[in-house]
Amino acid sequence: MPEPAGWTYSRAGVDRGAVSTALAALLAETRYRPPTSHGRVLDLPGHYAGLVRIGRETLAITTDTVGTKTLLAEEVGQWEGVGEDLVQVNVNDLAAVGARPSVLVDCVLCARPDPGVFAQIGEGIGRGLRRGRIALVGGETAVVPDIVRGTDLGGTAVGFFPRGRRPVTGARIRVGDVLLGIPSNGFHANGYTLVRRLLREANVDLTKPRRGGTFPLGEELLRPGRIYVDASEALADRATTHAFAHLSGGGVRNLARLHGGVRFELDTWPDPDPLTEWVRDLGSIAPVELYQTFNTGVGFVAVVAASAVKSSLEALRRAGVRDARRVGSVVRGRGVVLPRETVAYSGYS
Amino acid sequence: MPEPAGWTYSRAGVDRGAVSTALAALLAETRYRPPTSHGRVLDLPGHYAGLVRIGRETLAITTDTVGTKTLLAEEVGQWEGVGEDLVQVNVNDLAAVGARPSVLVDCVLCARPDPGVFAQIGEGIGRGLRRGRIALVGGETAVVPDIVRGTDLGGTAVGFFPRGRRPVTGARIRVGDVLLGIPSNGFHANGYTLVRRLLREANVDLTKPRRGGTFPLGEELLRPGRIYVDASEALADRATTHAFAHLSGGGVRNLARLHGGVRFELDTWPDPDPLTEWVRDLGSIAPVELYQTFNTGVGFVAVVAASAVKSSLEALRRAGVRDARRVGSVVRGRGVVLPRETVAYSGYS
Predict the structure, then answer these.
(1) How far apart are CA A52 and CA A102, in angstroms?
(2) Rounded to the nearest 5°, which phi and psi values hold at A211?
(3) Please, which residues 17-36 of chain B have a Cβ atom closer than 8 Å to chain A?
(4) Which of A90, A134, A140, A156 has the highest number of chain B CBs within 10 A, making it the mutation to test binding with B?
(5) Mutual orientation of helices A69-76 and A80-95 as an angle, nearest 10°?
(6) Strand pairing class (B50-54; B40-42)
(7) End-to-end CA, chain B
(8) Which of the four, A20, A26, A136, B212, has the lowest number of CB atoms within 10 Å?
(9) What is the pLDDT of residues B211-221, one digit of tens each?
(10) pLDDT in tens, A142-185
């Protein structure tokens, strides 16, 4: 595929193809499975979490970092948001398989341990724990100035499937299903390598609001991502809930992770939110790049049976999630299409 | 405590006190516990793993990185060892609470994804998985040149307690217990910030063996750490096994994590292994610093009832662990003492 005009993630320094190639090399020799006395792995390659059956329980485990959003936190001097994001990026991946969050460990890598910065990060983590209803039970703090210049915030979360609940994997998706989208609040923790590059190129002042904005741009960009645990918990026990997608890195392409034999048609996908539009215009980002880099205003999608749209929206409302709406449907074909923008993706990567 | 003469970890750039202060600031606001419908956390502060009860299962979760040993891997151009260490550092912490390893996720941070390097890392991870009997079920690969210059290899492991087994926490340690030590094979993944500094100061050629060595020093220093899962599995179900210690960062001080009301007297602790002695001499490292930085030849300790020494050694032998030996005992007092070196530590940190 030729590079689109305008800025791309790859031009900002991250070559997705090279990452995939290297990752495939790493994974080639790691397929070992221990005796089942060590637990039975349920293979779901490419999904949001690993699953293992131990005794009568099925567990989900997922790991993720906040990425380069921490560099913006450093520039602006505000660390609470990215602290909360450390929890967010992980619990939202548990939510995407319908697992109930249980415990988290964090991993902080830094060049020097600044107590003021650490206190802010801890404040944010604490807020994330309460929102995601998960306990921090351990972690690692590595002061490694020879390895990192900035700060890396990562974590690993473990969740489980309460009695009777099955993992929500997308296997039961069928043509005719409806996509319910739940709004995001900004870029969550994705696309910041590109966003930071555009800010630098245009010499943007982070202490002032962008055109049309209310808060200083630095603050707006550091808002922690929304946590979708309530939405997942509201729908995960319903047989008519066929899948969830967390629109993290990869944007709407994440939908293609759920099922390879159908097409996700985003016929009522909302226009991008104002912050995304502002960044799009700043970088002349082409639609094909925009929708595979940012969540564009929808952070979490539930795929439900057509007959269950009304009751699903009602269940979400009862759980306090009042802003879900229909954003598309499942049709024959494969990949993800966004008719309004004439954008189509054949798969996740 | 005044700094000892000779090289110290702190002089090499890592100030343990500053790390503790910052970590305390981070943890201050992260004590939240979710409703027990999300699992019941079993608090074991300062221990090797976090524990949570989910349904009928008790799980252990632990996270750790290989640290600056990766910089040596980069210098020498050999990555398999540190790949295996990614597994080792985590499964050994599970082994230290008597948990059986089940699943692992890895987290690789790098400046650029080199398929050759990634293939070697994967080869090492695969070897570690087989030795630790654990399955890799997910991971994160972050290409973040603005955050890292080198490569960071981290992971998180989840284990469990097979039916009837209780976590081995040290709570049942009593005066008279005996310490059985199992040899390490080098520095595992600890102390490399100091080791690398000493090598640089002395301009040591890594392609040649050290005095008394057989292999090129680079190769010897990159040997992956021994995995103690077999030892833990052999002893964890025995009521006479009161604790395990994994002698990672902090050296023999790790014993003080196990029980605050007794003293661990290392009256038959072996002399340091030849590689440790060589590094000690290179940096004129004082005993008090040596034993709190390196494992000095003993990587894992089991604390067992005096009456069970013979049967424990026999159980280890049956599991293929033939080189365990008595290294000390539990006496009245507190902290850790090494009479031969007149070294004493009052606690873990």
Answers:
(1) 15
(2) -60, 130
(3) 18-19, 21-23, 25-35
(4) A156
(5) 160
(6) antiparallel
(7) 12
(8) B212
(9) 999 999 999 99
(10) 999 999 998 999 999 999 999 899 999 999 999 999 999 999 99
